[in-house]
Design goal:
Part of the ABC transporter complex UgpBAEC involved in sn-glycerol-3-phosphate (G3P) import. Probably responsible for the translocation of the substrate across the membrane. Helix content is about 70%, strand content about 0%.
Length: about 300
């Protein structure tokens, strides 16, 4: 005897709910597993920074924090660590912060101006200039590092902030993103600005920049982290320890061969190196998401 339609519908509804519950459980389990895989090394670094050097030197890997956190972080902050007693973390953090901010601001400023010129001005070779900028995506600093280094040496810009920052501030990616956004600005805005007597600089200041704030914020986060994580170029161009960045300093803290490492101080410095990028992402998270997802301005 065939079941009534009401009973069949109820059974189908329960089966659908079970499938949805199972899919949600599997999805959440996969997400939790991914978070644990990413977070576990960070947790071990944080825990290792709270123990003495002997505990880690003996190969013990504790899972709970120890009692030497204040001592380890004070040493890393004020004295530095490692076999060669590198630059204090406080100075390296300041150097990295300054370099990252200069690179991010410089990239955004140059990219806005170049994209603005390509979109709102009509001049011979306009698209050729844009494609010349775009092609540089295939030439990152690691590819052109030898000629770039030679130019910096010839200009006597070694161990200077100009030599550290200027070769890294051009960004074809940011130029492309700003160009694509500027193309969405209605032509009526341009015509209204011309009727009001606004020149190119005033139109840029009063119309284009306010509309681009979320894009600027999103790019600032990405470019700040890019500048913060620079390793190869600062390693080549900076020999003065007073200008050493935290990423380069961390690599120098680790000894080679049979040398005994102060892993507790090294891990404390690594935790300190994580804080500025994490703070930038946390403080600008809403702007970052809006800049990447909003299409209507």
């Amino acid at each position: 005897m065939e079941a009534p339609p009401l009973i069949r519908d109820d059974a189908l509804l329960r089966a659908t709910r079970r499938r949805r519950l199972v899919s949600r459980v599997v999805a959440h389990a996969a997400l939790i597993l991914g978070v644990l895989i990413v977070a576990f090394p960070i947790w071990m670094t944080l825990v290792g920074s709270t123990h003495d050097s002997g505990t880690i030197g003996r190969g013990e890997v504790p899972l709970l924090p120890g009692t030497h956190a204040v001592e380890n972080y004070a040493t890393a902050w004020g004295k530095g660590g490692g076999v060669m007693r590198t630059t204090p973390a406080s100075l390296m953090l300041w150097n990295s912060l300054l370099m990252a901010v200069l690179i991010a601001v410089g990239k955004i400023a140059i990219s806005i101006l170049s994209a603005y010129a390509v979109v709102f001005f009509r001049f011979p070779g306009r698209m050729a200039a844009f494609w010349a900028i775009f092609i540089t995506l295939m030439l990152p600093v690691e590819v052109r590092i030898i000629p770039t280094f030679q130019v910096i040496v010839d200009l006597n810009l070694g161990n200077t902030w100009a030599g550290l920052v200027i070769p890294l501030i051009a960004s074809a990616t940011a130029t492309l993103l700003f160009r694509q956004f500027f193309l969405t600005i209605p032509d009526e805005f341009v015509e209204a600005a011309k009727i009001d007597g606004a020149g190119p600089l005033r139109f840029l200041k009063d119309v284009v920049l306010p509309l681009s704030l979320t894009n600027i914020a999103a790019l600032f986060v990405i470019l700040f982290i890019y500048g913060w994580n620079q390793y190869l170029w600062p390693l080549l161009i900076i020999n003065d320890r007073s200008m050493e960045t935290i990423v380069v300093g961390l690599s120098k803290m680790i000894g080679r061969g049979d040398s005994q490492n102060d892993w507790n101080t090294i891990m404390a410095t690594a935790v300190l190196a994580l804080l500025p990028p994490v703070l930038v992402v946390a403080l600008m998270q809403r702007w970052f998401v809006r800049g990447l997802t909003e299409t209507e301005k």
